[in-house]
Every structure is written in C-alpha cells, then in structure tokens.
Amino acid sequence: MLDLDVGLIGAGVMAQTHLEGWITLGARVVVFSDDGRHIDLAAANAAHRVTPAASLGDLLNRSALVDICTPTATHKDLILAAVAAGSDIICEKPLAMHPADAQEVADAAEAAGVHLFPAHVVRYFPEYEALHRAVAAGAVGTPAVLQFTRATAYPTWAPWFHDSEQSGGILTDQMIHDFDYARSLAGEVVRVHAQVRESHRNGIRVAAGTAVLTHAGGAISYFHGLWGQPGTPFRTTFRVAGPDGLLHHDTKDTAAFRVLAEHTTADGPDERIPASWLTENPYTAELRDFAVAATTGRTPRVTAADGVAAVRIAAAARESARTGRAVALSTEEAAR
User: Helix 176-186 crosses helix 126-136 at what angle (to 10 degrees)?
Assistant: First the structure.
C-alpha cells in the first residue's frame, strides 16, 4: 500500500485507467477535471481514499504527486503549474506536442528539483519487458533491424483526437509508443521518414501511418500504425533481428489479454485499453515504478529525457509526413 497523496487531473479513459491503478496501489487520490466531465467516484469503489477537488489549486495543495491524464495540448501548462507547486509529476504521453515545449517542462522540473515522469506504458507490458531483457542479455547481438506494428479502432471517445493540431494524429498519439520503445532498444534516432493516410467517409474515420527510423548506431526500425474502423481488434507485433538471432511476438497468437471497451458497436467491441489478466496490469506497474522513484530517488524505467526524445521523434515524423522528405535529427538533438 502506498502512503502517498496523488492528484489526478482528467476524466477520460486514461484518467479512469490510472485511477484504477492508484486504487489498487492504495494511494489517497484527489481528482479534478475542468472540462465538464467527471469521474464517477462512487463507481470507483474506493471509500474515503478518493475525493474530488474543488479546483486545480485545491488539487495541487493536496497532492505530493500530480498525475496528468488530459488532452495533449493541455500538458505543458498543467506540468508547469505542478512544477510551481513543488509536486512530482506523472504525465500521460506525450509530454507535449512540440519538442521545445517538452524540453521546457523537463528543464523546469529539473530546475525546481521535482520529478517528471512520462507515461510510456508499453515499456511495462510483459512481452515488451521480456524483449528488453532478452536484447540486453545479448540474445540477438546488436539489434540491426526492428519492426513494430500497432492497430486498434480509431479513437472516437473524445473529439480532440480528430484534430491533428491537438493530438498530433496517429504518429504522435499512437505510434509514439513504438518510437519510444525502439529507441530504448536501438539507441538514439538521427533520421526519420514517415507517411500518413487518413479517410473520413460516411461518418467513419480511419488513419494509417508508416515510419522508418535510422538510429545513430546504424540500426533501422520500421513501423506501421493503424486506427481502423469500429470493431478493429487491438493487435501489436514486433520483430527484432541481429547477427545472433531473431525475437518476435504477435498478440494474436496469445490469449493473455482482455480488452476494456467503452461500448460495443455493430461490428464488435470498440477496443480501448488492453490489459493482461496473467500478470499485473501494466498501468499499475507503471504507476508503482514512478511512485517508488518519486519517494526514494530511484531512477524509473522511463525518464523525462526519454519523454523529450520521443516528442522529438514524433515531431520529425509529422514534418516528414507533411513534406514527403526525410528529416534529420542532429546527434546533439538526439542525445539531448
């Protein structure tokens, strides 16, 4: 059980997911949202350990750690407010839409002596944990070619996803998961080439993105992301090859996942947040890692620098998709 006061900002899918994690961990949670939506605290089944905040200021005054689960465009201002209050911060990915903003909040947190943790939850999924351990142990030698795919239904539970100025589209909101993970395996990224195709017909939106990253050490990573029609099943794959072997995984070959769905469409369940019933929920594992790091000073699995690097890669991918040309990241930017 965590002896920790957490301020949770937001009322959407991710806020509810994080709240369930905090309840599991036994933290005291105060929640706030200023967009007119509110988490049903009675449904949280957390007795007196989950309470509402009257305002953002009230939440900040009552929290040692602030958990930001709001639309991407709001992250910068909320992080800076939490930094000014002297709170440690967990922020749902990405830290910000633009690299300069991500660097600004990371620098502000460092200057204030508070922790800033970017919530890149894929690093906490068991198959990705296993891959990272295997690569670190030399199972494939130095990674040379990496491939990642990620598919789910187009996110329709909040309108801001449809506005690329607010969400960054599929490259920033979805594929950044795998950009971050590939960098954790193969090192800094120095070149990005990406494409995006989107369609909106008969009220149905779909989007697909592809990207190729060149790493400073010479490895190449390939990505495909899909936001498909309603009922598109959640599925991820990876393949990592090196001179000594190949590691691969496909979620369609396992029965280790259930899907938390907001509703069911005529085409089947509109899948949202995957969670494992065989191991600890990855979101809970992520929150525990950050909470322990905040209270002990231990380095977490994902750092603010990782979050900034992921934003730089995603922004370069958006620029490449816009112009049709590859975008170079200087070695100084990549390592910053």
Answer: 20
CATH number of 123-278+312-335: 3.30.360.10
Per-residue CA distances from 204 to 150, 153, 261 (Å): 19, 10, 18
Domain boundaries, the chain: 5-120+282-303, 123-278+312-335
- The SS3 assignment for 280 reads coil
Nearest-5° angle of CA 305, CA 308, CA 310?
Answer: 110
Beta strands in 122-215 (DSSP E): 145-153, 189-201, 204-215
Same topology for domains 5-120+282-303 and 123-278+312-335, yes or no?
Answer: no
281-303 core/surface letters (b: 16 or more CB in 10 A; e: else): bbbbbbbbbbbebbeeeeebbbb
β-partners of residue 90 are: 67, 117
158-161 contacts at long range (C-beta below 8 A, 24 or more positions apart): 158/12, 158/13, 158/71, 160/71, 160/72, 160/73
Per-residue tens of pLDDT for the chain, all 336 residues: 788 999 999 988 899 999 999 999 999 999 998 765 566 655 555 455 888 999 999 999 999 999 999 999 999 999 999 999 999 999 999 999 999 999 999 999 999 999 999 999 999 999 999 999 999 999 999 999 999 999 999 988 778 888 888 888 999 999 999 999 999 999 999 999 999 999 999 989 999 999 999 999 999 999 999 999 999 999 999 999 999 999 999 998 875 444 444 444 555 555 455 555 556 789 999 999 999 999 999 999 999 999 999 999 999 999 999 999 999 998 665 555
- The percent helix, strand, coil of the chain (3-state, each to 5) is 40, 30, 30
The structure tokens 């800076």 sit at: 80
- HSE, CB side, 13 Å, CA atoms: give it for residue 308: 19
The CATH architecture to which 5-120+282-303 belongs is: 3-Layer(aba) Sandwich (3.40)
Q: How many CA atoms lie within 13 A of 212 on its CB side?
A: 9
- Cβ–Cβ < 8 Å for 81, 56: yes
